[in-house]
Amino acid sequence: ETGVTQTPRHLVMGMTNKKSLKCEQHLGHNAMYWYKQSAKKPLELMFVYNFKEQTENNSVPSRFSPECPNSSHLFLHLHTLQPEDSALYLCASSQDWGETQYFGPGTRLLVL
Amino acid sequence: DAKTTQPPSMDCAEGRAANLPCNHSTISGNEYVYWYRQIHSQGPQYIIHGLKNNETNEMASLIITEDRKSSTLILPHATLRDTAVYYCIVRLVITQGGSEKLVFGKGTKLTVNP
Question: Most buried one in A28, A35, B11, B32, CB count within 10 A?
């Protein structure tokens, strides 16, 4: 257990669905991150939040919409995804921006 | 691009020490060496990091050569649950111009055999 939890662990959705991924950290950290890991590709950083403010958006399509209501919770809202968006979505947190990151178990997403 | 070189795979017998090498010959003086591992289909797990001195925690030891061009992660008594892909990452701290982005290379697939 790393102190970072993600729900759901698995998700299957159609291209017209709307769903949300949730991440919660119990470490008192101030920074949270969303990563995407596709099969046989390295981790891709999607979004970074520091003290609830978004500090980075790595050219992520608008069908992915992050939300950070407080320093402990991070959401990724999904809307009209494509099959190529199927991947493992990982949340991470760190004490402060740029420090050691601790990852959650991930959400395995399949878009049909 | 990852600035480290690791062997693609290694095997280790259960109960023995697993020594995973990493080459980072272009490392700069302010860059840390981080190790993570990822068990199949799970999130990466932080193991240890260091700058110059050797480091030890409850999971592993990190030995960094004096010239800092290479390092070795040591799992002192490998178990079957240590089977995973191990990533060596070189990273500059934010306060010295680094990035929050973790750049994972291909790592070393460690298989611990019974």
Answer: A35
